Every structure is written in structure tokens, then in C-alpha cells.
Amino acid sequence: MNIILLSGGSGKRLWPLSNDIRSKQFIKIFPTENDYESMIQRMYRQIKKVDKDAKIIIATAKTQVSAIHNQIGYDVEISVEPFRKDTFPAILLAASYMHEVQKISADEIVVVVPVDPYVEEDYFKALGKLSKQAEKGEANLTLMGIRPTYPSEKYGYIIPKSLTDISLVEAFKEKPEKTDACAFIQRGGLWNAGVFAFRIKYILDRAKVLLDYTDYDDLLQRYDSLENISFDYAIVEREPLIQVMRFAGKWKDLGTWNTLTDAMETHIIGDAITDRDCENLHIINELSIPILAMGLHDVIISASPNGILVSDKEQSSYIKPYVDEISQEIMIAEKSWGGYQVLNIEKESLTIRVDLKAGCRMSYHNHQNRDEVWIVIAGSGKTIVDGAEKPVKMGDVITMQAGCKHTVIADTGLKIIEVQIGKEIFVQDKMKFELGN
Amino acid sequence: MNIILLSGGSGKRLWPLSNDIRSKQFIKIFPTENDYESMIQRMYRQIKKVDKDAKIIIATAKTQVSAIHNQIGYDVEISVEPFRKDTFPAILLAASYMHEVQKISADEIVVVVPVDPYVEEDYFKALGKLSKQAEKGEANLTLMGIRPTYPSEKYGYIIPKSLTDISLVEAFKEKPEKTDACAFIQRGGLWNAGVFAFRIKYILDRAKVLLDYTDYDDLLQRYDSLENISFDYAIVEREPLIQVMRFAGKWKDLGTWNTLTDAMETHIIGDAITDRDCENLHIINELSIPILAMGLHDVIISASPNGILVSDKEQSSYIKPYVDEISQEIMIAEKSWGGYQVLNIEKESLTIRVDLKAGCRMSYHNHQNRDEVWIVIAGSGKTIVDGAEKPVKMGDVITMQAGCKHTVIADTGLKIIEVQIGKEIFVQDKMKFELGN
After folding, report:
1. Which residues in chain A (381-400) have CB-CB distances under 8 A to chain B?
2. Is the pLDDT of residue B122 over 60?
3. Mutation for testing the B interface, residue in A291, A310, A330 having most B CBs under 10 Å
4. Cβ under 8 Å to A: B residues 228-287
5. What is the interface pTM, i.e. ipTM, of the complex?
6. Residue pLDDT, tens place only, A389-435
7. Which of B101, B199, B291, B355 qualifies as a FRET site for A368, CA 20 to 30 Å off?
8. B80 at interface of A, judged by CB pairs closer than 8 A
9. How far apart (Å, rounded) are the C-alpha atoms in residues A127 and A145?
């Protein structure tokens, strides 16, 4: 099975755990044997479990690449959008990559799967069936339709021509009023889960008609100028021959705190204590300080270095305009090599803790407008400062003037306190260099 | 007027803003023109406003001295208990200090006042009357009785012989059941506010009978071995000739989050946003990250570097056993010279931010088991390291091996990132030295 795993989205609705650089699929909330996994980790693992030979390509924007490497590792194919676009350009880019770079035949089927529903193994088995159904060539597009569990007003509906498991599609209906939703359900209407199976050739041919481009590299070059349009609008709505496959298993959209906590198996993640009078309370605490909750009902508490949310669960779905008011300074970030957390902010200084995974390194870079000091607080490795290599261990202090090129390479897991000093401290003040002379 | 201001107590009930080293009277929650003031600042200011010549001595334990200097300044008399004891030894020590060190005549009246009720100016005018009443010598002890506003089960009651404003005391009743409380109130019973006026001589004479000591210095020497007993038990309950003065003005005991927030004039202190559906919500946020609260009713949210409390207001009075479960690591401290905050904890390293007020210095000290690195992140001053003085400014790095003596003196307000490195890092690993050769 070939899968394009769509990993998009920004994260205002799950603030403070998601934000401009950490989308909701990277929040670790699902318990595993010793730890917690994120939506993307869970889905990647589930696909591989059901089909160990599945060829997965993650279609995403540049800003998520580090987090994906951090959570899934380096042994993963990623189709990186140079600019964030809607689903049509993103899917097309990934399909082109599959065909031209990965040399997958254009006659093969690919299944497009969003990264964020909460599902079980039966869902991935259904994806396999969907792929096989598409293989038959009875339609140009084969969609998965979720059997509705209530007349939701926030999903799109697929109206099938018949009530069979596989049916031609009669119509699509966008987010209906409740009465219409009830009527759709009575007619066998299904939720559109954003899962599409098609022959790679189909999308490449359609794109050649719609867009003026020659090949993958050309597409990448022109990406910025491509129309920002959804796959539904560009392809699905214009295609007369579509089949839908009914899926009646577990499928949950975890887009709000209310739905997300609904899918959580534990009530508390992180350091927290509750009294006996708490009911239907969920706490996710990513801070290193304890939370004590007393006498709360139907509440979500979510804390990270970016901020603290305390909300009635129902109310939490209206979070977006409030988060818009809050400064989205990035206080914590996962990188392919580890991550960092902001510890202190002053007018002309910033202090962060940098964590490198064993064997990893940050890029060789410099800054124009700030000096930096590193103090190694755990582990060992080596630094390269203006070309000079030096082993470092706990307690070592490295000072770097603005302009000086530097990197650090972790032998063991390595932790560093980095103090940045300068009148203008911006993340953007960073120039990367090739290592070696 | 001579006043012994009793500043005792630890702070579990107002966790996380109070803790083992910061009692509730140091939490800044009362708005002033530009800032917030604490209970102790408020009370000190109020006394001075009503009687600018009042001689105030603050009776407290060693652990609070730094915080008192930080909040009230250095121009304040403090009677420091070498060990924390109950009110009888603490009051006796302060009275001895007044008489022997401050040379206040033993014939003068002193009024003992707890630091933590929330009161207005009329309370301090009443203290003046109480002092004058005690001066008349009609009784050995003159107490203030608060007119009850409800049949509380958590206060002690004073039963007067008559219903006049000043009356002899018939009996004391400890924390009664509600029906008894109602009966006491019908008989004119008053809450015991812990305010006592007496001639200094009276307490010194009584103490000489009860304890074997010669003078103030001797008392200080023997302090550890003194019986740990309350003033009520040691003195009040054994004294037959007591008067009580009725006080009907505002008096609030701010011992729990519920009562404390009741006295707050603003609903939000610190960085926080609430939606329109929040009702009777109070937020005190001492963290540098924002809090967003949605759809909460009758809730207190209180956040500091020590932890985060989210509690139903009623429920918050049962906080103590839960706080007992929480590690009371000190994450933030106010010192006479400024303060510090813990930013990061590793197994063998601790990173803190040290803030010095302009003109202030920390003690000249060393550590046996840890190295330290200072990076100046704001301001300027000078360091003395093993006797060598050096000016420092933003960006300067100072490294200190274990054993090396050091201090820093702030010219302007000075901020330092201090990284401690060592296998065993304890606050106690600190030896102080005199400066100079």
C-alpha cells in the first residue's frame, strides 16, 4: 500500500500544547508501554503494524520537518512543501515525488490519509481494502466515508447512490444545518474523512491539465506561485466518476480539547494531583512544576512553556479568538537533533536550555547581532568554533562573539545552557555554513 | 503606640504562592497606585499612616528576615527568633528586646498585633484606644474582640461580662460547634483576634515566674530549650483580670484562598485572559507565561514557579493535605538584596536567575561541592572573587571553582544567570566570610 500521510495544520485550537510551529499531531498524549506517543507517531506505527511493507510519504511543510525527524526518526520519506499550501498542491507534490524520485509506477494506487483522526487498526485494514477497490478501476477516485454517529454540523457529507458498502457518489454536501444532516444520514450519507485513493497517473494527468509544469523539480520551483486550492475543490468536486467505501469503525476527529480529551485513556499526563471531588477532569502538564486541582468538573487543564489553559470542556471549542490575542512567542521547540526551551527573557538577553540527542549535532552557524555563551550542564561531546574542534564535558564554558561560526556535536545526550546577549535577538539571525575547509 | 507585629506562620494553605519560606503575608495581592503590596506591607503602611510615631517591632523567625527587608526595607526593627516557636516565647523575646535593647520603659504599654487580618484604618485607630485603655490599669491584659458577622466554628470566642464597649472577660471558648457559636453571639460573644495590650513589665514579670532566665541575651541563648507554648495558653488563660474592647469594623481573616480572593479588589493579577462565561473567578499569575481561562465559575487559579493551583473556591480550604504530598522545593525566593528564581534542574546541575537591587550585594561566600558560572544578562556592578575585585557588565562570564570565595555588588539593578555544577547541590553548602583582608 502506498500512503501519502497529510501532516498539515497549525495549532491554535489546542493551545498551549500546539502553536505556530507545533501542530496538534505532535502532542504526546497517547500512552504506550513506557511513555506517550503523538497522533503522528501513533498513526505511523499503526500503518506499519497492519502493513509492514506500506510505503509512506509524509506530505508536510518545512516547519514540521524537524519535529517529524524528532518523533519518527530519519528513516522516513518526507515530501516538503517549500511554502505552506492547501491540500491539492501538497498532494500533487507528494505524488510527483513518489513517481519521479521514488520511482513508483504511475499505475500504482496511492491512498491519501490525514494524520489527525483517532482510529484503531480496523481503519488501516479498511485503507488496504480501499486501495484494492481503487485498483479495480471502477472509478477515478475512491473515497472513504465514515458512518456518522450523530448529525454533526461540522463535517462534509458524502451522499452515496446506494446503501451498499461500496457505492458511486451522488453528491457532496458541505457542513450542513442539523436538520439537513439528519436527512443526509437517513439517505445513507457518510462523513467525508478526507481519505482518497487513486492511481498516481490520474492526479499527475489532471494536474498537467490544470497547471503549467513539466516535472517534480519544476513543480518545486513554481510551488510559491501555485494556486492555493484544496484537493476537494480542485479534483473531487470536478470528477464525475467517484466511489465511496463505507467505514463503520472507530473514527474520531481530535480537533478540539473536548474531543481530544475524550480519546485520552488517562486523566492525567505529567505532574499533577487531584482531589476526590474532581470529575471528568483532564490534565496535561508539560511544565516541570506540579498542578493541584480541587473540586473541578468537566474541565481541561493544559500547561506548557507557552502558557496555561484552564477551560470548561464545552467552552474549549471557542478558544481560537482568545489564543489570537496571546503572543505566540515560541518557548519550546522539537528539532531533529533534540530541542530547546526558553528559560528566561530579558530586554537584551535570552537564556535557553538546548538538549541534543546522542550522536546528533546542530547546524554549523553564526549570528550577526548576538554573542552567545554555552555552559555544558550534562553529557559530553565536542564543539567546533571557527573551525577549531574541542571536546566538551559538564561544566565547560564556551564563549562565542557575534559572527563566530559554531556547532556542537553530542557524544552522549548533551544539555547546554545557552545565554544569548545582544540588542536585537531574533530566531532569524542565523546563517548556516558547510562544515570543513 | 508600641506595637509587636507578629509575623509567623508557614504557608501551605495559600500554596503555591506561599510555602516554607514565603508565608502568606508576603504575597503581593493588594493593588496600590502602580503595583501590588503584600499583607505585611499593607499593615505596616496602615499603622504608620494612623500613628506616624508608632514604634513597631516585627517578631518573626530567621527565615523571614530577608523577605521583610526586601518588602519593608532596612529601616525596621525586627526581633528574630533563632528557632521558630509558638507565640509566647516570640512575644516575650520581642518585649525583652523593646525594653532592654530599645530601652523602652517597662511601664509603657505594648500592643501585640498579628500581621495577617485584612483591616482598614479604623482598626488601627481602635488599637490606639486599646493602648490607652490598657494604660488606665483597670486590667492586666486588654484584648480586642471582633464583633462576629456569622457563627464561625473556626475562631475562638471571648465571652464578656457585659455588653458595654469595654468589659471584663467572663470566659474564653475555643472553636465551638455552630449552635454554641450562635449562643455565644447572643450573649455578646466576640471573636478573639489575637490582639493583646499590656504593660511591658507585666509580661516580663510573668515570664520570670514561668521561665528561668536573666535577661534578653540569656533568653536568646536558651531560646531553643523554651517550652513551645502559645500566649493564650501561657498567659491569657491563667490571668483572672482581663478586659475586652469591642471592635465592629472590617476584619477579615485571609487564611484560605476563598477568604483571600474575597478581599481582592481585582479579579486578575498577572498575565491572564478570561472569556465572558467566567464568573467569580480569581487569577493570580506570578509566572511569565499567560493563562487563558474559559467558562469557569467560582474558581481560583494561582500560579507561581512552585506550582499551579486550580480549585473550586469552597474546596480550596481543604488544600493542606494535598500540598503535603507535593515536594516543596524552593523555586523562587525574595532576599534582602533582591531574589532568585530556579530556571532549570538537572541531576548534577542547577540554573538560577539572580536579581540584585541597585546598590545591593550578596554575602561573600563559597561552596564546598559545586563550581559556579555567572553570566551577567543585565546591568553592571563588580565581582569579588578570592579577594580580586573586577567591574562586570552585561555579557561578562565569571567562572568559580568549588572553594573559591565570591560575591557580586550591583551598581545598577543587576541580573545574572548562575549555573551550579556539582554532584551534590544543596542550599546548605554555603560558607559566609567577612570581606576585607
Report:
1. 394-395, 397, 399
2. yes
3. A310
4. 273, 275, 277, 287
5. 0.87
6. 999 999 999 999 999 999 999 999 999 999 999 998 888 889 999 87
7. B355
8. no
9. 11
